[in-house]
Every structure is written in C-alpha cells, then in structure tokens.
Amino acid sequence: MTTVLEKAGPVRRAERALAPDLIRGFMLLFIALANAANFAFAGQPGLDGTPHGLQRVVNFLMTTLIDSRAYPVFAVMFGYSLVQLARRNPARGVLLRRNAALIGFGFVHATLLYFGDFLGAYGIVGLLATTLLLRRSDRFHRLILWLWGFQTVYAAVLAVIAVTTAHAGDATIVNSPNPSLAASSYASSLVHRLAEWPVHTATVIPFIVIVWLGIWGANRRLLEEPGRHRTLLRRVAIGGLGISIAGSLPYALVSAGVLHLDAGSVDAMYRVHAVTGEYGGPGYVALFALLAHRLTGRSLTGRGQMIVALGQRSMSGYLFQSVAWLILFSPWALGLGGTYTAVAAAVAVWVISLIAAQRMSESGYRGPAETLLRRIAYRTTA
Known about the structure:
The chain is an all-alpha fold.
C-alpha cells in the first residue's frame, strides 16, 4: 500500500490543494474550444479545411495546443482524484458507487446533449482502476513509467516514418462527420447519439494508461506538495509539452494551409499528432502545479479565485458547456457555425461559467452535478 488513509468523507473546501482546482478550472477553457469546434463543424477535429487569414492561426494553435491535448489533462486528474478519494475512504464502496454513478451521468449526458461524453468512460475506467490498480505497491505502479517509455519510443518511430515517407500533394483537413451534430431535429440527434456514444466510449477506454499515470503521481503527492517535486515537475512540463507540440507540428502546418501533402501523408501525420497528444496531459498538469506552487501563500486575484471555483465545480461546468453548444450550434436551434464563432462562443461560455462558479462559491454551494454525485457516493442527503 502506498496511500495513507485520512479522515473519511467528502473533502472540505479549506482542505483542498490549489493545483488540482486551478488545473481543472483553466483547462475547461481548452475543453470548451475543442467541443465548440466539434459542434460548429459537425465533425472532428472541428477545423476549417481551407483556412484563410486568421483562421490559419486558429487552426495552428488549436492543433498544437488543444486537439487531443486537453482531454489527457482530465484523464491524469481523474487518476489523481481516485487516490485522493481512496485516502479518505478506505472502503471501496464509495469509489465503486461514485464510478458507477459516473457511467449513469455519462449515459444521460450523451443521450440528451453530446455524444462525445467522457463521464461514462471515466466511470468504466474508474471501476477498473479501483479494482485492479489502486491498492498496489510502488513497484507495481512503476510499470506505468515503463509503458510510457515504450510509447515514447513508438511515437518517435512513428514520427520518423511519417516524415521520411511524406509526399507533396494537395490534401486538406477533412472533418469526420458526426450525424448527431448535423441532425435536423432534436429527436433525430438523440437517436444518433444513442448509437454514437457507445462507439466513442469504447475508443477512449485505452486512456486508462493516462489515468494510471495520475495514480502514480498522486501516490507521491505531486500536486499537494509541488515544492518538494519542482525538479521532476519541470522535467515533465518541458518534456511532456515539448513532445506534444513537436509531434503536432507537421499536422498543424497542414491544418494551417502551410504544408501541402498527399492524403496518405496527412493521415500519417495525424497518427503522430494523436499519439503525442497524450503527453500534453502530464505536461500541462506539471506546468500548472509549478504555477500553483508559486501562488502558494499569496492571495489569489479575482480571476484566480474564479478559476479555482470553477475547478471545484468542473463537472457542472462541463455539462453546462454541452447545453450551450446544443443551443448555439445545432441546425434545429440557432445553427451557428464557423471558426470565429466557435472560438468566441467557447470563451464566452467559459467566462459565464467562471462567474456562475464564483457565485456558487460565495454562497457555499458545491454545484448541482457535484452535489448529486456526492449524495450517491456517500449515500447522504446532506
């Protein structure tokens, strides 16, 4: 056993470490940008295939910093939170109920709002991790470092092959269509989502290797005690984000209309982009952990307090975003679209969620989704 058992029950706000909430609150902006673009173009990755002017810059930044790079942050944080919960609740029942509830949350979210739900996948991975990973030794958890080492070699080989076999051409980025996002009625979109969600969830289950890395980090209290681990965090931030950005560059240049390749080469560049995106998770987490360490002992500004408040209500913020995208971008609703609209909507919805989270924090309210999840997990109406 590597974890230390603490007082059982939900964690109080005063007991929370700064880094996890800061990470979740800010990174919800990246999730908003990614999902708003998905809705705006009714497909993935949500990029204009023939960009002009500032669209080139947006495509480049979305590809290097956000696409396939935002969700791994939450996967790392999910693994981290499992250990934090296990410390406070030695009985597995709380974790098992919580993760089972996440599957239910995911099903409802995906059915009513957005097929690209991750809550259900988190629930499934959480059940697996609780059963198979949490109560293991340090020696066992070092296996995940070896797995990431092998993956790094694989990514490097993939990148070399992609670059050395690339051919010039005129292929463009093509969004893989999502029928639920292009449906002409809400009823039709609901039917499509029921078919799309299971497939999407099955494809993202392998992110358990990212969750496991979060478990490894939590066993060392990297985010609770970032000052003790500054050297490691610096290396992870530089190495993780370095690999993530470098691996995305060829595909990003294609998306920006700067690099012109044939379809096969673009596909190869996308595979490198997708694999290296996983390194953005630990990279961003380490970067924000270092920022949190610098902020320790200082009074947070108003914006900082709002970001932390949203991080404490990240699931409610995530679900609120899906409601907004459904209203703003669905053809049967407002039917908005385009690169600039997606970016503006993402920023606006994130800012609104910051304000709402701060108001909830001032009134001592955890958030609707968090409150319901806690009631299910702890079997309480308090």
